[in-house]
Design brief:
Elements lengths: L21 E2 L5 E2 L14 E2 L52 E2 L29 E4 L1 H8 L6 E6 L1 H10 L9 E2 L2 H8 L8 E5 L7 H5 L5 E5 L4 H13 L4 E5 L8 H7 L8 E4 L2 H10 L2 E12 L9 E7 L7 H6 L2 E4 L11 H12 L3
Parallel strand pairs: 6-7, 9-10, 9-13, 10-11, 12-13, 12-14
Antiparallel strand pairs: 1-2, 3-4, 5-8, 6-8
């Protein structure tokens, strides 16, 4: 892989240093010399507009297979922020102070658990498997030859609804159950729509296979809410994006909630998990991909300005936005022009607006 271009605006001439060698998918190991050795990860905030994190990023440089497969920045004008609970539906206000999940040196406030961790969860699946639920998610999984299926549970009503999306015969015969049994299995707060599918997580793609696809590449820097990641995948599929890249840590694994929010896009949109986001951006830049960080501090995003370039759109976490090292590694920073009483957008909404803008090329 040829070295990154250090003279790009907004980019960094020196690759970030961290623990361990970089191993690209199928590529040879190489260890760049020089550069600081940041040892601390950015803290994740949850809530209002995205705020840049003063800390860097650390971690080994190789891409890893996930244990189970599975925004930018608040401001008065070019702002895109998060909801109070980090959900894709937005919050009641977008300007309150983000909460921190631990006390640390940044704040004297008591520690908080991230709100999304308190969201309803399906029952624990057997090791190496995941429970999917919802009509669209299950119909897409049944139609995906790459998905290994284990068990399909449907009510009569759910079977009829899924048959409209995907006429039988299916790859697996269903077991007839009632809603009470699914409530007991998945949890009473899970909106399963009378359908549950036990399946293996999808195998992650390689970065090289992502680069061979056409379309915008979405890079998520510590976006932690599975509903937001799922909604972003749905928008990515709608606007013809090539893939979504998340961090291996501080990002949700493949879950039923993520698959339901993706509404079938999880089976169609490649989801790559990279250990180090900054090094992933460097690899994309070396492959002639122009990396745009979405942040309130940038000029308004203009799709026609990138008509002749392959683009990667980099979005930051709810509350914190892009971390400092991520912003420095991007080629440039852009924002969304927002007018009116709302000063910020949820990260998944901001991703949709930015993807739409980039299609105007």
């Amino acid at each position: 892989m040829k070295p990154p271009r250090g003279n790009r605006p907004g980019g960094s001439s020196r690759p970030p240093s961290d623990r361990g060698p970089y191993r690209g998918p199928g590529g040879a190991s190489s260890r760049p010399s020089g550069g600081p050795d940041p040892r601390s990860e950015g803290r994740i905030g949850h809530g209002g507009g995205f705020r840049g994190n003063p800390s860097g990023e650390s971690g080994p440089r190789e891409y890893q297979t996930p244990r189970s497969q599975g925004a930018p920045h608040g401001g008065p004008k070019h702002a895109h922020g998060g909801s109070r609970d980090g959900s894709p539906n937005g919050g009641r206000d977008g300007g309150f102070k983000p909460r921190r999940e631990d006390q640390g040196a940044h704040s004297g406030a008591p520690s908080f658990r991230p709100r999304e961790h308190a969201a309803p969860r399906a029952a624990d699946a057997p090791k190496g498997a995941v429970w999917l639920y919802g009509h669209h998610a299950i119909a897409a999984a049944l139609a995906n030859p790459a998905r290994r299926l284990r068990r399909l549970l449907l009510t009569d009503e759910a079977e009829a609804a899924i048959s409209k999306h995907l006429p039988p015969p299916w790859a697996m015969s269903p077991e007839r159950v009632d809603r009470a049994r699914l409530d007991a299995l998945l949890g009473r707060d899970i909106v399963h729509q009378g359908a549950a599918l036990l399946a293996d997580p999808l195998a992650p793609p390689s970065l090289q296979s992502v680069l061979e696809r056409t379309g915008v590449i979405i890079v998520l820097d510590q976006v932690t809410d599975p509903r937001n990641v799922g909604a972003i995948m749905r928008s990515a599929a709608a606007f013809g994006a090539a893939a979504v890249i998340t961090q291996d840590r501080n990002a949700p694994e493949e879950t039923g909630g993520l698959a339901k929010a993706a509404s079938g896009a999880l089976e169609k949109m490649p989801l790559l998990r990279a250990v180090n986001i900054a090094r992933t951006i460097i690899a994309l830049k070396a492959a002639n991909v122009w990396c745009i960080g979405l942040d309130a501090g940038g000029k308004p995003l203009s799709g026609p300005a990138f008509a002749d370039r392959r683009v990667a759109l980099v979005l930051g976490a709810e509350g914190e936005g892009l971390r400092r090292l991520t912003k420095e590694t991007c080629d440039e920073i852009a924002g969304l022009a927002i007018e009116g009483a709302v000063e910020s957008l949820n990260v998944s909404a901001a991703a949709s607006v930015a993807l739409y803008e980039l299609t105007r090329r």
